Amino acid sequence: MSAEQPHPDTELRARLAKAEVAIIGCGGLGSNVAAMLLRSGVRTLTLVDFDTVAKDNLNRQLFFRDQIGMPKTEALADTLLRIDPEAELRLVDRCISSADLVEVIGDADVIAEAVDGAPTKAMILEVCTRDLPDVPIITVSGLAGYDSANLIVTEKLAVNLYVVGDLESDIRSGLSLLASRVMVAAAHQAHAIIRVLLDCEDI
Amino acid sequence: MNVDVALFASLSAYQPDGQAGRHARTFDLAAGTTIATLIAELKLPDQARVVFIDGRHAEESAALHDGQRLAIFPPVAGG
User: Inter-chain contact B56–A129, Cβ cutoff 8 Å?
Assistant: First the structure.
């Protein structure tokens, strides 16, 4: 490679640096996805969560003991700014609904669905695939329990919808959320977002 | 009319052939059949789900048309 040509990785990083990602839910998935995106070069994130950090979040979510009681968005922003002080973070510290979801997402290039409950997941997918048909959304479904991490995959489900998970493992079945399996799903989700932003055909 | 129907995750057990698997099965339906009608005929459980026709969002009140592919996806909890 000649000295005049930029390194391919530099070009890819530049594309990621211009991207905006909306992360809905800052728990086990969202907090870790945010950190992985930032470390990969995505600089602009919208962080959405209504909840505060609790002690029992610390087994899998990117929070610390001294953040217990803080709004998750603020606690996560503090951590992310320690990684990259120049990151552009927009915090939405409230419960979102189908009525204001599109407004909250704003001009994001990609949406990460990272909430807990199935009805809320369905609401987000419903609104985003209906009202934002050209904005890719990466959802996660099926990450609980002790089953093999190799069952967690990423696949395209609809024109602008990608799903990460084994599609089956449900916390309502009594399965616990293990940091290792949650992190596998979060890494799949973050990587799918990166590949979508880089226009990769096979996510 | 013929419509391909793919039921994901736990819903695959409701395919008429009783076989697991997300692959689509072809249904021979009466003209004018809606998604909601088909869901009722398949006796799908009342749970959170998202519906797509040919990869795009669809309302359950929508009528199906010959050659379309219907996909129904039920997200599960955990995040």
Answer: yes
